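Incident log, structure service

09:12 report received: a user says their structure output differs between two submissions of the same chain.
09:20 pulled the input from the user's history:
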Amino acid sequence: MNVDVIRAAGLAVALTTAVISSRNYIRAGITPFKLALLFGAVASLTAIVGAALGIYIVKQFGKVGEAYVRIALASVMLLVVVAMFLKRQDYPEPRPNKIAEKLGLAGFYNDPVRGRVAYVPNRFFSRPC
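09:34 re-ran on a clean worker, output below:
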């Protein structure tokens, strides 16, 4: 079977799972709709660009390009595993963010343990704003 078909199927499954899980978080009041819509759009766009870039690299460089793509995907998976095991603060205090305020993304969610909790997105594009 063609590797590109497998990657495309995996992409479709990942995006579908993200959309379905965001619906559950919105219903539970954990995620504001605007925030889920923003991240869903960004995830879809970057997934399509990444898939197109992977296909382009494989077509331009052949077997070497395929090795590059596999190494890149393995590196991303390893980074995700490392990020899962990093020590994080349990309940960080929300900090204001200019972009989040302009887009109206701040809100509240109900935590069964802590009650009503304020949520302010404070990181965009992997760097503090």
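09:41 both user submissions now match this output. Likely a transient worker issue. Closing.
09:42 reviewer note: The chain has a mean pLDDT of 76. DSSP finds three helices and four strands in the chain.
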